[in-house]
Amino acid sequence: MDSKGSHFFIGLFVIFGITGIFATGVWLSRQDSTEKTISYEIHFEESVSGLNIGSWVSYRGIRIGSVIFMGIKPDNPQLVLVRISVQDDHQLRQGDVASLKFGGITGSSYIYIEGATPGSKVIQSSDADPAVIPSHKSEFEQVVQGVPELISQSTVLVQRFANILNQDNQEQLQSILTNVNAISTSLADQNENISGMFVTIQDAATEFKALSISLNQTITKVDTLVTRLNSTVDGVNDLITDDAKHLINEWKITANALKTLTDSANDILAANQDSLQEFSQEGLNEFVHFLQEARVLVAGLSRVVDRIESSGARFLLDQHTPEINPD
After folding, report:
1. Per the structure, how many domains does the chain have?
2. Within this chain, do residues 179 and 270 fall inside the same structural domain, yes or no?
3. Residues 63, 132: one domain?
4. Measured distance CA(283)–CA(44) in Å, rounded
5. Do 133 and 150 belong together in one domain?
6. What is the dihedral of CA 223, 224, 229, 231, to 10 degrees?
7. Residue 86 exposure: Cα atoms within 13 Å on the Cβ side
């Protein structure tokens, strides 16, 4: 009785499980049937092996639909017509392009769509008149189509390599290898001489380094000497300039004093004109000559002062080499 009861419960559990699975499948199918979709057509020039009805339609890696029909285009047998069903909230846009992608090692394929840019218009399509989505060759197809060209180029390369290794070139290559071997042997025999040459080169480099250090020291000393000479010249120039300024100031004071004296004399002459007319003719003439010479002296001093102010120390240090008469 216990054995029969356990079998009954096991069978009942299996029946309920199968019924639940069947009900879930029906519910999912009804959900799919009630979901709004949009149909599109894609025309492939390449083989669509691995693609089946129900294969995924992916947009940038997100599943948005599935394949619902596959066949040969009636008016062009070179094209494969594939109809896909896409969810209504993932409508395709202008610029979208479809291609085949491989899903894994099983060899199954799916349709991959991408290419639209922001602001692209939605492609109008319906089940009765599906819009055509452009396609391009898959990466695998491009590789497969490039294989014959690659094989052809490889054949040409092998042929050229065979031409290079003909009998004449082989003999020349053997001669080159023989010469290289002879040179290597000669270098090995001259090992001591080569070592001595390297030692000589190293000694020369050491001497050159020492010469460079000495030259740098000499240049440094010359720079220091030039700096000191410049400082000395600047000091002499400042000294001469200061002395010249002091002398100019003294000459200006003297010139002003002489001018004051002359003006005072003129005032005295003007005030005592009547008395001076009675002075003797000889004394008056001498006094007039004195005034004229004083005015000439004042004018000369003024010119000297102006020249010193314009020329500076060069006027005081300017020396002319005297001319020597050969007679």
Report:
1. 3
2. no
3. yes
4. 141
5. no
6. 120
7. 29
203 lies in a domain?
no
Q: Could you write out the DSSP letters of every residue in 101-132?
A: EE-STT--EEEEEE---TTPPBPP--SSSPEE
Q: Are residues 130 and 75 located together in one domain of the fold?
A: yes
- Tell me the pLDDT tens digit for each residue of 150-170: 787 888 788 777 777 677 777
Does 1 map to a domain? no
Q: How distant, in Å, are the alpha carbons of 18, 266, 272, 275, 290 from that of 263? A: 146, 5, 14, 19, 14
Give the full edge-to-edge strand order of the sheet including 97-102. 97-102, 109-114, 56-59, 62-72, 80-87, 37-44, 131-133
Instruction: Report the length, in residues, of the chain.
Output: 327
For the ranges 106-120, 162-176, 198-212, the one whose mean pLDDT is highest: 106-120
Instruction: Supply the range of the domain harboring residue 274.
Output: 234-317
Phi, psi of 82 (to 5 degrees): -125, 125
